[in-house]
Amino acid sequence: YPSEFLMQKITEDNQIPVHLHVSVSLQYVAGLKGRALVEFFHSNIAEVENEELRHLMWSSVLFYKTPNVEVMACVLLSTKAIYFLLDDSFIHADEHQSDFWNKENSDCENSSFHLSCCFVLKLNDLQSVNVGLFDQYFRITGHSADHIVTCLTRDSYNTHTFIQQLMAVLSLLARTPSPEPVDKDFYSEFGSKNTGKMENYELIHSSRVKFIYPNEEEIGDLAFLVAEKMDGLTNLPSLNILLYVLAFQVNHFEGSAQNTSSLQPKTMILTSSDLFLFDEDYISYPLPEFAKEPPKRDKYQLADGRRIRDLDRVLMGYQTYPQALTFVFDDVQNQDLMHNLTLDHFGE
Hints:
The protein is of the alpha+beta class.
């Protein structure tokens, strides 16, 4: 251990996304290759001597206790736990985290050390994994509010690869087997007889961890919500969601010492007639079992919406992935001017 193939794969995956800024300590980790990376894991992160590093992924993460702070993390999956090596700026981002993170390193701040927090979720504590729409993110749930983390991969390939690796590692866990399931028909398996509402599709792993995938109704609910935001301009049956993608909106600040830009996480939804940007709550839904009250905000909050027919042009950047797109819309004072002219001219 480890095989050359695994070391090569982990080295290839050890790349920070170019558009995200990270601290010096995480830049150091990203510079490690092959055996040096494995040795770093065993000497600095691993909690048990005989655990094996199986997968590495860079991703933005959200914690249930701090749902408004998205932070960059190096996610390491071993045969014993999932480790989130966090950007040290996260600790100072929110004053309410003092009970969540033990700040014992205050005396080291002026030294030459670069410190990172490492959040550990043991595989034995894992209860469920919720996969988001179109595999853009997934949420890992443990036994308490401290053990809920969402990984915003913004990439279906990275999500799929991590889930596959996690299932493989969970298969190695020795847990007491569940009682034999009783044969059920389709309706009792997937639906509640009281409400008639379809439940999300669940896959219960041999380790008894639930993998929960969204069903078609979630898209239907989203389409209904989008139609509501459009003030009834479109009839619901003809409304199709063509694209759902987690992206960043670029806010450009001019006039400062150097022109800077900040990236605001947004959910972009494209329909056949409109383009929408939503602020989405990726961590609170579906509600964890221990939640005593619903979250303070809705799952989707409309940030911006424009009609496709007002789109003048789309500018594409020439940089490598991730691609930057600029949508330029006509700024028409009376939005429905063309709409009414068309109706008057062509009749019904």
